[in-house]
From TrEMBL:
One of its GO terms (cellular component) is membrane. It comes from Streptomyces lavendulae subsp. lavendulae. InterPro entries: PaxB-like. It holds the Pfam family Pyr4-TMTC. Transmembrane segments: none annotated. One of its GO terms (molecular function) is lyase activity. It is a multi-pass membrane protein. PANTHER family: PTHR42038, TERPENE CYCLASE AUSL (PTHR42038:SF2). The keyword Endoplasmic reticulum does not apply. Its main location: membrane. Keywords: Membrane, Transmembrane, Transmembrane helix. It comes from the Bacteria. This is Uncharacterized protein.
Length: 202
C-alpha cells in the first residue's frame, strides 16, 4: 500500500509539473533535481530489466518518459530565466555537464552500494536536495509562478510513504533521518505556497 501511494503521488508530481510548465511557459521542477530524477529512473529501469520485465522497471520507464517532457519545458523556456550573458552554446554546454554528472552520480551509487541500497540512498538524498531547491525556486521567482500546491503535497506524500516503509518498517535509520528532513522542508514549502495564495474576496 505504501509503495502504491508513493508511485501514485510521484506520478501526480510529474503530470502536474508538465501541465504547469506548459501553462506558465517555464519549467516546474528544479533542474538539478530533474537531472538526478531522470538519471535515477533510467539507471534503475535498465537495472531492473536485466533480470526480466518487472512492475517497478515499467514504472521507472514511464516516469523517465514524463521526466523527458519536463526536460523539454526546461530546454524550451529555461534560458529566458537566466542572465542575458548565458548564450545558447553556454546553456547547452552547462546542460550537458549537468545531466552527465547526474548519471555519473547514480552509477557511482550503484557501483558502491549495489542495487538494493543504492536505489534507496540516492533517492532519499536527491529528494532532500529537491525539497530544498523547491524552496529556492519560490524565493528566486518571488512567488509561486511555475509551481503548484498539488506538486508540493504530492511530492511530500510521495516521499513520506517510502520513509515509513524503509525507515520505520524496515528499520533504516539513514533513510528515516533523510525522510524526516525531507518532510520538514516539504511542509515549509507547502506553507509558503499556502501563504502566497490570494485571500478570498468577501
Amino acid at each position: 500500500m505504501l509503495t502504491l501511494v508513493s508511485g501514485l503521488a510521484w506520478t501526480v508530481v510529474y503530470v502536474e509539473a508538465i501541465r504547469v510548465g506548459l501553462r506558465d511557459r517555464t519549467y516546474a521542477m528544479p533542474v538539478a533535481a530533474l537531472a538526478l530524477n531522470l538519471a535515477w529512473e533510467t539507471t534503475y529501469a535498465v537495472d531492473e530489466f536485466r533480470t526480466g520485465v518487472s512492475a517497478q522497471g515499467v514504472v521507472n520507464v514511464v516516469w523517465a518518459l514524463a521526466d523527458l517532457v519536463i526536460v523539454y519545458t526546461y530546454l524550451r523556456f529555461g534560458r529566458a530565466e537566466l542572465p542575458g550573458f548565458v548564450t545558447r552554446p553556454l546553456f547547452a554546454a552547462w546542460n550537458v555537464l549537468l545531466f552527465a554528472t547526474a548519471f555519473a552520480v547514480q552509477w557511482l551509487f550503484l557501483a558502491q552500494f549495489g542495487t538494493h541500497d543504492a536505489t534507496r540512498y540516492s533517492a532519499f538524498l536527491q529528494n532532500l536536495l529537491m525539497s530544498g531547491l523547491f524552496i529556492a525556486f519560490f524565493v528566486a521567482r518571488r512567488g509561486p509562478r511555475g509551481q503548484s500546491l498539488l506538486i508540493a503535497v504530492a511530492k511530500w506524500l510521495g516521499t513520506l510513504a517510502p520513509t515509513v516503509l524503509f525507515g520505520v518498517l524496515e528499520g533504516s535509520g539513514f533513510v528515516l533521518g533523510l525522510g524526516v528532513l525531507c518532510s520538514v522542508f516539504d511542509v515549509v514549502y507547502i506553507g509558503l505556497l499556502l501563504r502566497s495564495r490570494p485571500a478570498p474576496s468577501r
